[in-house]
Amino acid sequence: MHRFDEALLAYDQSLAVRPTVAQVVCNRGAVLQALQRADDARACFDQAITIDADLVEAHCHRAYVSLLLGDWVTGWQSYEWRAQHPQSRISRRNFSAPRWTRNDPLQGKTIL
Fold this sequence. Notes:
The chain is mainly α. Helices cover 55% and strands 0% of the residues.
């Protein structure tokens, strides 16, 4: 339906009454992202995470918008949250081998 301006107004009205509902702040950010207002969207995602540090959706949205803005560090760190989203199709790790991070040396090792 793409009625983003109306959605933004509705979220603003909701936040005027209850400004600390993280999901509403996150949803407002998603609307701003759809309107290609990446900086404003990221500010909403950051605010939502400040309110609720465990809000997976806010971390995922922040990842995408941060990567879009060229903030690779924040983007890739936040991108790791995608596996925690309840609707994620990313396969869960069901084996005991340690996860590789870019700080671990690769010499003599195999990555699966």
